[in-house]
Amino acid sequence: MPLKNKTKSYMEFTAKKIAEYLHGEITGDENATVHTFAKIEEGVPGAISFLSNPKYTHYLYTTDSSIVLINRNLELENPVKATLIRVDNAYESLAQLLHLYESSRPKKCGISTMAYIAPTAKLGKDVYIAPFSYIGENVSIGDHTSIYPHTTVEDNVKIGEGCTIYPNVSIYQGCRIGNRCIIHSGACIGADGFGFAPTAQGYDKIPQIGIVQIEDDVEVGANTCIDRATMGSTVIHSGAKLDNLIQIAHNDKIGSHTVMAAQCGVAGSTEVGEWCMFGGQVGIAGHSKIGDKVSLGAQSGVPGSLRAGSSLIGSPPIDPKLFARCSVIYKKLPDMYAQLAALEKELAALKQQIGK
């Protein structure tokens, strides 16, 4: 898709070119241009927005955005001043445009003289190594990978091609990062697993001699910690997406394309299947096995293994419909307790009268 440079700060798209790229149909001015993105309720001239959630339909008739992506089957109830592009799925089409926009931005390249790079490190083509980053002995970094400031890559780490390692990331010795991975600021890859042997004097530390292995196309959120294995590997399989502030303990295996929202915690030696979806603050007990395509609602506490395809919430997790019914009853418990106490008193009085 051709792009026209307007200034150093943005690119410009026409409705015609966007429609060609997305295989969409235009209603309105095919020459309308945009150079930024905006939510439909916050639209401004020169912005492109999208509409996929019916709750926001009323904004379509008032938005100031120049172009709006809508689903093909949407029927208009009032005139629209924006140029519309009808597509099969407005949300997915917006994601495609965002990827295109991101790929069009200039990429950083070059190796700063203010970075420390060990003589034995091997760097691929078009690598970016920012100031104040540290690259240890025998590190291997693939082509087109970017290492941002104050990131530490310890000895014998291998990082694949096309990765982005943001500022203040720590990757401990020997860990493996696949291709096209993104690791956000403050993440810690390969810190010691939480292993201690209780003794009469306290706790003896158990050496953690394993590594972390992150496969291709994984994204790790800010301040997320993935602990190295006691022996062997803690593994994050391909395509998994971890949000911010997540704890993955030693010797865990996280399946391909599994997604976890913020503040999830997975205790040690747990296996999580493929295509699972965990809401925020889900906790999984150690040595559990979670099957494929398991969905867990926010704050679910899982004490043991779950079969594939389960959809649960709560602690311990139960069916969402049953959880909702229980929640309604929970709010009524004080009144129910008072009623029960009154009934008990009434029953005791009746028994006393009968006894007389």
If you had to describe this structure to a student in words, what would you say it looks like?
Residues 1-9 have low confidence and may be disordered. The strands form six sheets. This protein has a twelve-stranded mixed beta sheet. The protein is built from three helices and 41 strands. The chain is flat, with a radius of gyration of 27 Å. With 356 residues, it is an alpha/beta fold. The protein starts with a strand and ends with a helix. Strand 23 (196-199) and strand 24 (202-205) form a beta hairpin. The protein folds into two domains: 4-104, MurE/MurF, N-terminal domain (Udp-n-acetylmuramoylalanyl-d-glutamate--2,6- Diaminopimelate Ligase, Chain: A, domain 1, 3-Layer(aba) Sandwich), CATH 3.40.1390; 110-318, 3 Solenoid (UDP N-Acetylglucosamine Acyltransferase, domain 1), CATH 2.160.10.
